[in-house]
Amino acid sequence: MAACLVVALLASGWAVAHPGAPGPSAASPTPSASLAISPVVSPTPSPTPTPTPTAAPTGTPPPVYPVVDSCDPSGVPGAIAVPGTGSGKSGAFTLHVPILEYHRIVPVAEAGDSLPGLVVPPTRFSAQLDALENAGWHTITLAALAGDLAAHTKPPARSFVITIDDGWEDGYTYAWPILDHHGYVATYFVIAGRIDRPGFLTTSELQALVAAGDEIGDHTMEHVSLSQQKGTLLTYEIDAAAARIAQVTGVWPESLAYPYGGVNARAEAAVAACRELRIAVVEEETAPEKTVAGSSPGSTAKPVAVKTARPRMLVAVETWANRFAVPRVEVQPSMTPTKLADLLPVLEAG
Predict the structure, then answer these.
(1) Among 50, 118, 176, 350, which residue's Cβ finds the most Cβ atoms within 10 Å?
(2) Interacting residues of 296 by C-beta distance below 8 A, sequence separation 6+
(3) Parent domain of 322
(4) DSSP secondary structure letter of residue 192
(5) Per residue in 142-173, pLDDT tens?
(6) Element (DSSP H or E) covering residue 307
């Protein structure tokens, strides 16, 4: 009884000495009391979150960049220049690294008026990569392939390249999470003049992709066939696009994809003249058209020249000599995961 009275008097005295302050409470125990009456519970471990590219908040106005019609790295101060832009080692050296070509990774219902053959649903894309990962395949960027060619270095077995053309925003919203899930990287070929336009990759998304280890490549300023261009317009489409990508991402592009596969000797020379570019890809390798003379049976008409269908001859071959016209394989939505997994070893074998 005496002990209880002493405790009550002490508590009353504390309250008088500290008017307005909360007194001891069961809801707010002192640290020592908490440790004495509460068992120590270890926090439940949570999985490490997967790194996710971070884009700028919606509504942020896109930056405005001046046009730099030059591949000179000094034209974009601060952008990382391409290392080792000189010639490769002498002597024959050939690689057989499969290069896959995609355009849109998006549900068909969201593809608008895109050609059906260019639209691979995310579920199909994911299943294709599942099959390749299960078969032991891993990715490198096209820039890494160029570096291997220059150094005469063979990448690890079962290396392949994923390229995604045109710079649609679904390359970030749909394709990137699937790539990241598999630990894969890709080379995104963007149309530089469409960056930050509705439906296309934004500045912040491109920067996030670069931070995640992906490569951003040159796909010209306005997606024109380079084989149809001449003079200053030809160099503008290549050089100004490369400089714009350097402005946006802080890294000069090392690779280019010819829009529509339009390549000839003039276009190839113009790409090679941009010293920051080290490699360029065409749509796909095909056998040449055959022209034959003939007429229908029983016809009195003279034989006429007709063109046969061009059989596709899918190959994977990269040399220093052909590095500005490297073939790649277009992956259509009809390509099953099993067929793709069976195709890559054939391409790698040459």
Answers:
(1) 176
(2) none
(3) 88-287+311-349
(4) G
(5) 999 999 999 999 999 999 999 999 999 999 99
(6) strand 304-307
